[in-house]
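User: Hi! Is it possible to get a structure for several chains at once, not just one? Here's what I have:
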Amino acid sequence: MTFKVAIIGSGNIGTDLMMKILKGSDELEMGAMVGIDAASDGLKRAADLGVPSTHEGLDGLRALPNYKDISIVMDATSAGAHMKHHPVLVADGKQIIDLTPAAIGPFVVPSVNLNENRGESALNMVTCGGQATIPMVHAVRRATDRLIYAEIVASVSSLSAGPGTRANIDEFTQTTSRAIEKVGGAERGKAIIILNPADPPMLMRDSVFTLSQGGDEGAIRESVLRMVQEVQRYVPGYRLKQDVQFETISDNAPLNVPGIGRVSGLKTSIFIEVEGNADYFPSYAGNLDIMTSAAKAAAENWARAHNVEAA
Amino acid sequence: MAIPNKEKIYVQDVTMRDGMHALRHQMSLDDVATIAGALDRAGVDALEVTHGDGLSGSSFNYGFGSHSDLDWIGAAAEAVKTARITVLLVPGIGLADDLKDAYGAGARSVRIATHCTEADVSRQHIRVARDLGYDTACFLMMAHMTSPEALVAQALLMESYGAECVYVVDSAGAMLPADVTARVTALRENLKPETEVGIHTHENLHHGVANAVAGIRSGAVRVDGSLAGLGAGAGNAPIEAMIAVFDRLGIETGCDFAQLSATADDIVRPLMDRPVRVDRESLMLGYAGVYSSFLRHAEKAASDYDIPTSDILVELGKRKMIGGQEDMIVDVALDLVTARKAAS
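Assistant: Yes, the chains can be modeled jointly so their relative placement is included. Here is the combined structure:
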């Protein structure tokens, strides 16, 4: 059977997610589109495409006649709004997929830990930069004895960074840093975000730098290439832009890593490019695409698990 | 907390912040204390002390600092009697929380820096800075990349969030005096009278001091410089030369250029492991309009991948890379290696 999904948030992310679910999913179907601005493009599209919609937020969703049939609620609003939505949705028995940086439920990066959190009532999708880079951090971790430090730089086009991201950019860096540690497996994580206004807009770019000990270059490269393929299963436009680069940090010229101190090891540099599927936003917005693709993959995984239980 | 003396220009030193780029963020605590003490005695209003890329800039992407920001700030704060300690914060790299720690270490003034078209990412940091009691200024970086009119719109955003001063920042050292005049004049005419305007220059086209003069003549009341020009690219306006020029022009600063000159030559110049000057690499930054901090990273990539530094810099300019995108330097070098292989 398929499960009905409600999306809260009719901005770029929510609308792209709706288009992806409408385009085709064996496990999911659109149940409702929820916004707070009746004039938003997302709500208009929902109405045009025959998806039940409301511009009265969570209260409007709960008043919809088909609310009881909705199994999964995907929240693409803001961390602040999600904090208010979360307890209500839990009380109503809905499975929550949170696309904001609120990080109430455990972090989920589909290529890394999708099945570990199957029983959780709320899953958090980290950030776009986290979805693009944590698979690479984990790829280095699984090929080495010790992943001391991992740093990511996410560069996105200015046009694809909405007002929510801009008003609270620290939420992005802090949430991503924590997930680099918790999901990626680095002892210390750091995230940097750059908004580039170039016209025509640049594709989303992500660079991952790690410092590890124990583990050879060949094994790291092989693990990275394998992980790129795993991500490509749900994000077709995810690509390794350059060959993986290595540099030995010797004991007589150690790095002074914040929070760690002076340390040596192997530096690995991974350069990623993410081209979006252009389901709603143009293809340069790989940052939106990887977030909605990962969230859809998480929802489908939950649905498959429930179909197995039902069978 | 605006500038204390309205009768004179507010001189902000950046030797121990922008200068960090020139030293790959390696500066000892003793050197920081010595330089801070000398600047204080020479009458400089404020000294900026952090990693070159601001609070929490220490990283693979920008280079790990030899010390933490807090240790550097503490060393400088202990060495000064009257000068303010300033910090830089670039949203997306550093956090609003970093401002609390820096204040605790002795910082009292902050510059919150965004690319010249992205001012709206600075709101939360400006508010936190004001609440903590910082003198709160803002940087519009790479200001040559946008028009005076567009720059005004961004400056108005920063003012609306609480900025007490907005700087026109020529991060690429790409402006000529007329470019500075147009931008500073536009900000001065459109911001509230109580919001100050500042000017931050680089020497890449050898116009650091001339651009500072142009800024002041157009209404800027805060000006940046560094000892011996220690800064990214060809460096900043050398503070000793800038003060000497201001003296000749009758622009009052309260600074002693001869003392500054002695510190520049005796203390700062010997620290340089690469001369800070206009040369074929740093000149290309100014000519191509490329972020000055890319210089030393591009030189490393040039050496690692055997590609001329200037080719890397020109390509970064073509791709419209902005401040903070140091990761794209190796990416560009690898693309140039691939292109060379394909051509041969």
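The first strand of chain A starts at residue 3 and ends at 8. Chain A has two domains: 3-126+290-310, 128-282.

User: Great, thank you!
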